[in-house]
Task: structure prediction
Amino acid sequence: MPVGDLIPELILLAAAVAIVLFASFAAQRHQAWAAGLALAALVAAGVASVAQWGPAPQLSFAGVWALDRPAIVAKLVILVSGAVCIGLSPDWLRGDRRHGEYYALCLFTLLGALMMAAAHDTMELMVGVLLTSVASYPLAAFHRGWAPALEAAMKYYLIGALTNALLALGVVLLFGLVGDTGYAATAAALAGADPWGVIVAVACVVIGLSFKLAAFPGHAWLPDVAQAAPAPAAALLTVVPKVGAALALARFVALLPDAVAWPAIVALIAAVTMTLGNLAALRQHDLRRLLGWSSVSQSGYALMAIVVLDAAPRALPALLVFLVAYALANLAAFAVVTHWRGRTAFDDCRGLGHSRPLTSAVLIVALLSLVGIPPLVGFVGKLLLFEVTIAGGYVWLAVLAVVNTVISLYYYLRVAATLLFHSPKGEIAVLGRFSGWTLTLTAALLGVVSLVVQVLLAPLTGIAFAAA
Amino acid sequence: MILSIALAVPLLGALALAGYPRWSAVQARRIAVGAAGVSLAALIVAWLGFDPRGAQFQHVVELPWVPSLGVAYRLGVDGIALAVATMSALLFTAAAIYPVDTRGEPRSYYAWLLFMQGVSLGVFLTLDLLLFYVFFDLSLVGMFFLIGRWGHGQPQLSALKFFLYTFAGSLLLLLAIIGLYLSLEPHSFDMRVLIEQQPLAGGGLYAGLVFLALMLGLAIKTPLVPLHTWLPQAHVDAPGPVSAILAGVLLKMGVYGMIRLPLSMMAETFARYAPWVGALALLAIVYGALVALGQGNLKRRIAYTSVNHMGYGVLGIAVAASALGDPAARQLALTGASLQMVVHGLITGALFLISGSLWQRTGDYELAHYGGLAHQAPLLTGFTVLAAFASLGMPGLAGFVAEFQVFAGAFAVYPWLAVPALAGILITAALFLDMLRRLFFGHLPASLATFSDLARAEWLVLGVLSLGIVTIGVYPSFVLTLLESASSALVGGR
Result:
């Protein structure tokens, strides 16, 4: 058994278990040490992932575990996002007397997302989805005395239960149709399978993944969770499952025969998701909720690359660059929110550009990157998306994405205007030194990646999934 | 190299101003003027080193940036780009010198101004389509913050409207740019390759869509009627120097873009639609002039004359693009359109700076509240009269030279467009004379009894701009040789 291929995942697993044990026995004042352990595990897992960047894409464990470059890129994004979230957490949770388990839950969520990104087998995919789901419900409800958090977690749980059941149904149906769960065997057998059965199974799997992707129809939990979960966990939950699910969906649809017409289905979901997310974000008066809806619309953009996965050779690199850009910008935005002690109502943010110029600048830059204003990395992501969408023949989808981008500019600019074009209402308190450092590092990462985007693009150009 | 200096110095200046918190208002302004001036000087050196009989693009720099996408740092100018860029740098220097109320934030005001200068020059100097888009888009960001933070009236609303409206245009432009990029094999954003290969010639629906998206994006920026509605409000609420930049430089990006992208790269497609573009230009000319005549607000009036004047520029481009007609006439029209950009920048820049001076003194743009200032402020009167006469096309001043060439070319190719367009000139004359009468003659209201004449910084700046206006009017050939070298390459090169 090639256990070495699972080193990053095993590190996370071991660290998570160790943290659970540590949190059960450690004194309350030592609980935050779990964060250090989690960070160390993430760094080790990151190093192990980079070491897997092999010469040729390969499959492991009898073809159920993909060890290709898309998976490794996604893993790195997931691990970095996890590190940012955990870096922000100790200061945020200082008031919570018992929070050691929080870090274990974070690691389990990350582990599930890693499995989603690398799954090359429908059962494997199920396990990944369920692991992130189960670990992230308590994360959303971590402020257990606060009604909005409970409401958000309940919503999250109910939608998750429904969509995960559908995912299980789809996986079982597919297994019934092709007699195997491995992707290689599935791809080979699908061509001869009953087309209507395949369509139902595919629809169930896509709906199941839309929950993790926060795309229509499984998107409704995200705004609530973004608003009510602990802000660092909100950063994690808006980014990490999305990255894993995007890769999982791309891997899954790449198997399907042309007869299923999956590009049309995904294109429809993309169109609805981006439009819905943007229109809903227009009416928000709460920064976190706005970021939640914007995150829904960003899923819609990401789906554009999956639509043209077959038609445009650069669709996969475009998807990965877009995910990297989205993750960095969203993390930076949530880092600012966290550092401002979760102050999110627009009315409380008036004039912060004057009293907190640097953090406001980071927030504005992050939002502009989400719009896709050059030369930020978000622009490169959107440019590549538009390019592959047009090259793949979906001009209408690109035009719709443009219309949506203009709409999104409106609400992102409202935040900028609130911060800058008002006079401040006195000094505001910020969280702590640790969250400040994490914020600085995240912002620096966004800036550096924007500056050296060509270095990022070079290894991604020609990237492809491992051959089934 | 010299172009990189012109581009980089303002951006570095902006960075320094934004990053170093100790500078006072006076120092900040001095640094801004210095950086803008260095950039202007670099462009003048480039101008002196430009050979009108040489290659189409000169001072070319090319450094690889993202080779996998065909993006590179490519700079280079032809005559039109160089003339417009130099005019822009002059206008930015003027705007930096011109006194303005920075509301206690001089460093960020001047940093944004320098940032605007860097990215605006980038639009004119780059030879890479993607960089063109990047700079085009960044100019919106800078303008948003300048209007929103230092504007008056309803600045947030105007800034937001400006950004949303023009961003929609620039995204259409992005789609078109991707369309052009995909049509090349191997894919590249190099403008020179696109101009040389004309990849979409005879391209049917695809070419038509790319052209439509390009023209819509650029028409919003120009702006052409009926896509002009963002302009008046943005102008009215922006501070004077920023209005001058908006009218003098940002609007040129639309017209310049039409010359650089559709006219150069899709000549055949443009020729097919040239009469329609010309008709839209006619609409802008007549409608812009009529609406300007009806405005009682000084800045709105000048803003609408910009719609009218940019209409002349687009008319000249449409004439140049038409497949029929004498190449000499078409070249004349294109030279006129390019000169119109330079001239309009100087004249309207001066007019908006003047309206900024009026606002600083009274906080009012209503023409009805003014009158009789001729005795009170003779210098202000003199400069305004000069700029207004230049703007209405008085022979001997710069506006006449440009409009004459546009009309001379248009008569040869589209006489049915040129004749009604003449009405625009007549109305413009009426509206400027009316404006001068209401501002400077008649009874002096009691509230203006303490109105002070221009300060030294103000009349020095206006003096330099006026000198440019008169020089181009009397001795235009120093610009024309430059512009003709480019327009003959564009029109004669087919």
